[in-house]
Specification:
With about 950 residues, the protein is mainly α. The relative contact order is 0.04. One of its GO terms (molecular function) is protein serine/threonine kinase activity.
Length: about 950
Amino acid sequence: MDSETQQYATTDPTEEPPDLEPGLEPGPAWTGEPKPDHDGVLRVGRYPIIRKIGEGGMGVVYACYDEALDRRVAIKLLNSRVRSSSAQTRFEREAQGLARLSHPNVVQIYEIGAHQDALYLAMEYIDGQTLGAWLTEAERSWQAIIEILLGAGRGLAAAHAAGLIHRDFKPDNLMVGADGRVRVLDFGLVRGVSEAGSLDQTDDDALLDPESRGLLDQPVTRAGTILGTPAYMAPEQLQGRPSDAKTDQFALCAVAYEALFGIRPFPGNTTEAITAAMLSGQIAPGEDHRGVPRRVRAAIVHGLARDPDHRWASVDALLDQLRRALAGPRRRRAAVGVAAVLGAAIAGPWLLAEPAVPGPRCSLDDTALAGVWDEPRRASVRAAWSRGASDPAPTTAFVEASLDAWAEDWVRSQQHACQATWVEGRQSEAMLDKRTSCLDRQLRAFGAVTELFADADPELIARSPELLARLPDLHACASADLVELRYPPPENPERAAAIGRGFETLARARALADAGRLIDADASVDALAELGSDYPPLAIEIQALAGERLLWNGDRDRGLPAVLDAARAAEALHLDDQAASLRARVAIDAAGTWGRPELEQWLVADARAAVDRVGRANDPRRVDLHVAHGWLLDAHGEYEAALGEFQAAVATATTNGQTVRAELLRVNVARMLANLGRHDQAALEFEATRAAAAQHLGPGSLRLAEIELDLGLFAGQRGDFEDAHVHLDRARAIAVAAFGTDATRVTRIDLARGKLALTTGDLDRARGLYEDVLAAGVGPPEWRADAHEAIGVLEFYAGNYPASLAAYGEALALRSPILAADHPTLAILHSNIGESKAALGDHAGALAAYTQAIEAIERRLSADHFDLAFPLKGRGQSRLALGDAASAQADLERALSLHHATPGEPLEQADVEFSAARALAQQGDHAAARALAQQAHAHYGAFGQADRAAAINHWLIELHPAATGSHVQSSP
């Protein structure tokens, strides 16, 4: 495999048995090359091809470019000659298998599609090489190999946790990225798995979730057919017996044995020879030129047991053994330099002095993660999660895996920093001190988060994905180019220790604020202000934190300029990375909420420029800035552009390995799709996010309550009121279980329940819910504006038009400082104001309000957006009252067509029907007028509006003599 092909590895078809796909028949001649489009560009689907990077019997892999999201992707295109349904089933199985997984050590799938009669799979583009290529590129220590295998094992364990097994794990299906991250790929043989189920039975596969049986859960193996690569297959798989997660464990151990000892554990040139070697139980001895500890070999051999019951209980159990062996007998080292002055519990484990006893430099220190992420802290986190989560298992596993991964990366970063000086000789001792100091700050910030997690409550658990996403970026300490060089740590031990305590307090304050514990965060700010510092990087953070404190308490007018001043001070001292972080914080807080659109736009653009200036690959701040820009565009009613930003946030988080956060961020994509009227796409995104929240955070998490709330609002928007009630009831039950009935989150859900009651005509219930929201007095101004506007609608329905106008005025006063003048939300409010003015007889004023609303919606959304139905109805009614029946009919017919296209507001539709009937009657079309009036009568009656139905009856009685020339009622 050449170097370019190694950037994305596929199964080598020559390793598969000849009968892998019996029954395949060649189709017409196919060159394997897509045809150019009308622009002469070679594409697969919507993706322009950069180059071919691999080809096998089943198809071709291309490096392509995703123009929409500005990223490279790998496209796996199924050879069109492979026409059997089983081949396509395997290909689609790979897509579904990967779609179920969300883990940094598993290749990410983006989409499956068809191109020129061939299926394709769009996947994460990995700049790296296969395990085999990585092993031959340079001499690798046994420790380095185990580190790679630990990453692979985590990926397989994630698959097993999702109810899947791989069934074809081998060196070519393991990629080592240029970023050091390991990914497992090629899930073409993946299956659903249960502890006792067979993967190869056609009729009675045991599935984890029998209610969600999809293509992935249907058997792919035919009688007498073995799928996989024999050299790494377990005996039960070779013999066609049931397979489970221990089958993957065997393959992982076979790969590990070959990587460490240079020979496959059960060599043979045929399937029969390999099977015989396995059944004999004789493992090839191999050569140990790496000094592999006996404990490592024993752990791997244990996983190669012929009987699955004699292997490790799980891949996680195997990984635990390998991690323990990797730690080995640790020797203490004398601490000097930075490590000495920053304290043993936090100092890096790679100490800088000459060894006091024989042994390699850069050895581990027992105290490296003590008190930060060790067994006592892990136990405290589990206990807190058990108290704070209704179903702690999923979210605890997710949090522990994330913290484990960060801690392992931190240890590896310390090792790389040490080796760059003492082993590779490419870095000065002074630079090592700076990198170690940088990593020390990162570890202090990490410790602040683990300390919080050890005292978790439901609110913190709901915020855990964001807290984990904001763990310190270890890439900031990765090289001399990224470490702040101008201010090395002081040599004086007391000063250095004080600086360390300052950064620790800083990290704690921000973690507390991110968790919503503002009183505790304020106390940390006070402590930090008293401490003070003349060390410029810390002094600037103390200055910034004073401004951030104002932001926590909602004072943006003073807080944002204060943090910006700190950012400018950092730039003046050439502390560009600090400045970028501070500008990003300002942009994220201001976007869409400050009420100063032009300044908000500038803040986001400026923060992006600052982050780009730092030039760090896979910078997690870019995810936050995509989200911030999306919020800004959403607040301005620019939903299409906001959709693009939210999609970019998902893609960037995925690229950065923040796969769980990426899944949860899809809720923003769903909201924008709903705003744009793309309901089918929105439904898919909402359900995907809901499934991710349930999987990773548990069925009782507050994050799931938020998504249920969104689903309830979305169902109401579509007119599915029964489904809306179900989702909102679920959301409220979760929130009440966590906080009781008097809580901000419950108030927010009650606001949505009020809207649903109003929409379905349950007016008394709606009024009670909205009045409770106003009485609670919690939440942002937007909530109170929603409640005032809804009460205005209720007063209108009650015939109390002055009170209706007063309520709308309260809502307008709350919304105007926050939203752009032509924002669609303000447009609807102007429409409601017009309706109340019309009811009071001020039709000229009403026409002006309606027209303002219509023009804003057409400009910001589209000429056929459903939100136009309301102001079109109102303008038509006012024109009718002013005697312009023809213009009135045009507006009303346009409004009625929108209601037919998007059912969901039956009382509004009835109003339009009756008004259109009156317009038709004024123009002499009595038959059409009668038909529309009868439809309106039916709608009013169905929703208990007896008075309005009676008014239509009276009008219909008067209409009959009008047909012979008598009076026709025309008042609106």
